Task: structure prediction
Amino acid sequence: MLLTNRSKVVSNKNLSLPERIYLPAIFGGMWITLGHLFRKKTTIRYPEVMREFSEIYRGQHVLKRDNEGRERCTACGLCAIACPAEAITMIAAERKKGEEKLFREEKYAVVYEINMLRCIFCGLCEEACPKEAIFLTKRMVQPEFTRDKFTYGKDILLEPPDRGQSVDISRRQTAAVIEFKKDKKFKHNQ
Amino acid sequence: MTTFILYKTLLASFILILSLLVAMYSTLIERKVAGWFQDRLGPDRAGPWGLFQPLADGIKLFFKEEFMPNTADKFLYILGPSLTMFIACLTSAVIPWGPDLVINGKTYSMQMADINIGILYVFAIVSIGVYGIMIGGWASNNKYSLLGAVRASSQMISYELAMSLAIISIVMMTGSLSMREIVAQQQGFNWNIFYQPLAFLIFLICAFAETNRSPFDLPECETELVGGYHTEYSSMKLGFYLFSEYINMFISGAVMATLFFGGYHFPFIDKLNLSPNVFAAVSFMILFLKITFFGFIFMWVRWTLPRFRYDQLMRLGWKALLPLAILNILITGVVILINGSS
Result:
């Protein structure tokens, strides 16, 4: 069966004279490489020039706060279960009296860690989240010198309480996405 | 006499420094050219356009660990790269770099030594070059090094024959072994390449083999021999081996320009009525441009052709280039005979 039309029949015939003196083939090859010399280079000069990002690029995660600056995450663990790379771990705790300004739900994550070396940035955590708490953003995970630095805790993941500094996730939370999450399987979202 | 000695010392230092500088920047240009051929940019991070890259590489080589296998022959192990480097710098002595300079009414030749057997000197030095590689490879006491060295020496000896025979036709035409004489006869556009294209082709192919450049870089053939003759070398000793390859490239470019492309001659330059010293400088620049062109050809071929197999290499050397060179001598002899009798 032919998979492509580019296959060539190989034969053991003796080389013809132009083939045996190599030179025509050599000049042909040199002509091809000369063509490449003047071709547009494909290199992207990285720190100065960035590769164009998709509008819905899946980069470093953010833990969102609601409009009153309270953490949305309720430490239900659905993201950790959804995660195919098992990169997410968390420890839940009960909200005390007087902490209503800090946490939206009665239960919250004391520890919320994502191992960025395990994470494959698939976005399933975001899809699984019933509280619209975790989103992937256009930010890139920064390089580090040691492996343990890649386990990001709440100090890095949580967005700042100040509303002015909140991370924009509008491109990943479009009307279509919200509509999708309203599917009866996700009834608890409302 | 003292001014003469001073002049020669200055010229020698100038040529030495020039060939070292050229070799230094050839490494950068080689990588740049390789990048361009592969639709990349090549190194451009160290300084503007990567101009400090050779410095960075040199410093890196100096600070690398100086490693010597404890079974190696210590003296020969050090002698190998030193000899290679030394030999590489020697050939430039007989190349006429330009027409005479006039300083205070006296003329000074821009050639280190106008010995009347200039070409023989070049070949003698080039064949000593084998020793540097052979000694280095043998002294390392490593089978890959030894295999690489054996390959290198047999390759260089095989191709030297065809190379010398190709030159004999030039010598027959000019009737002199002196490089100065050969250049003088190629005044204007009367270049040897137009009379001896076959000899040039043979010489060019042999030059690739002599400098151990791709497609004949079997001695250092990474895929089979780890690193070839310099497998056990590190630090600046390795640097010397790699460096001497670029010096050899520069010098063989100079020899090719001198023998076949009219040396420092270029048509209509001598009709511009320049003052002697300016004329000498312009002529030198022309020679340098020709050498640069050959350097580019070396790199162009390297990044185009795959490596020859060893039996193909030997067959090409002995069964193709050698008979062709002899045939070329025969044709040249017949043509000279006919021209002489008429």
